[in-house]
Amino acid sequence: MNHPGVWITTIMASSILMITMGTRQSMGLYVGPLNTDTGLGIVSISLAMAIGQFMWGAIQPVAGAFADKFGPRPVLLSGLLILVLGSALTPFVSSQLGLILTLGLLTAIGSGACSFSVLLGAVAQRMPATSRGTASGIINAGSSFGQFVFAPIIGKLIQWVGWMSTMWAMAAVVLLAIPLLNRLTNDTHAPAAAPTPEGGLKKAVADALRNPSYLLLHLGFFYMRLSHCIFSHPFAHRGRLVRAIAYCRQLVIGLHWFGQHCGQLVCRFVHQSLSQQIRVGSDVWLAGRAHCFVLGGTQN
To answer: Is position 132 within any domain?
Structure first.
């Protein structure tokens, strides 16, 4: 990480992720005004956002496969444009189906296509292997920092100009990531084709599912998302009373994830001499203690 070019690449990628994930992870701030204007109901809006959460994860391996074939640049650019399209069309919809199409599909597919998997692959082509671990931690922190930055801005804009104008403004902000993307993906290319492993993808997935470490990794991510929902619940309930609390909740969650990714960087330097099992175990124990402390405090 001592070379200036490595830092420039890392900051550009982190900025792209900050913009795309910051706008996406603050979607919860639109629920109240969107429900008031459209009358669709919290259930219909929540369904659209739940579908979006699923699609955001499901599209990433597909986007990665396209990046392997065509290179990261067209995939990332297409993702940005689809995200802009979904955000720009959302204020025009007035039905549950339309909301599922825009928030559940377009914005989720767009943000997923230009998310971690493809973006980190593009960065890896522009820096030495010794810097990739630290760079990935900084880039990941950019997604949480995006929520930390955008949540109060979006909350205030909704109060001042309404949720429709705010969503159009966020679509315009996403367009600002295109120059960064062009600079980041300059001279990137599709990776050289690797020999197909014996048995193909089906056997590779079957082998992974038989690996306890792979299953524990999924369990770890499941715990993280579950704790996120549980942590959000008390704030979400109280957010009905005062609108300011709604975006304060997003701000707190943004700090939560930003602290998590900063913790990854700290653990990288502090735990280098420890075994993987001890490192993962200590991180899970600390995370569990922190969540118990926070949840205990929010129940009063």
So the answer is: yes
Domain, as residue range, for 252: 201-300
pLDDT digits (tens, 9 = 90+) for 132-167: 777 887 888 788 788 788 888 988 899 899 999 999
Query: Counting beta carbons within 10 angstroms of the beta carbon of residue 202, is it exposed (0 to 12), middle (13 to 18) or buried (19 or more)?
Result: exposed
| Token pair in block for residue 127 | 């820096």
Q: How far apart are CA 173 and CA 162, in angstroms?
A: 17
The type of residue at 20 is T
The distance in angstroms from the start CA to the end CA of the chain is 45
Query: Are 157 and 73 a contacting pair, CB within 8 Å?
Result: no
In this structure, are residues 141 and 262 in contact, taking their beta carbons and an 8 Å threshold?
A: yes
Q: Would the pTM count as exceeding 0.85?
A: no
Per residue in 165-176, pLDDT (tens digit) is 999 999 999 999
CB atoms inside a 10 Å sphere around CB 134: 17
Is 196 domain-assigned? no
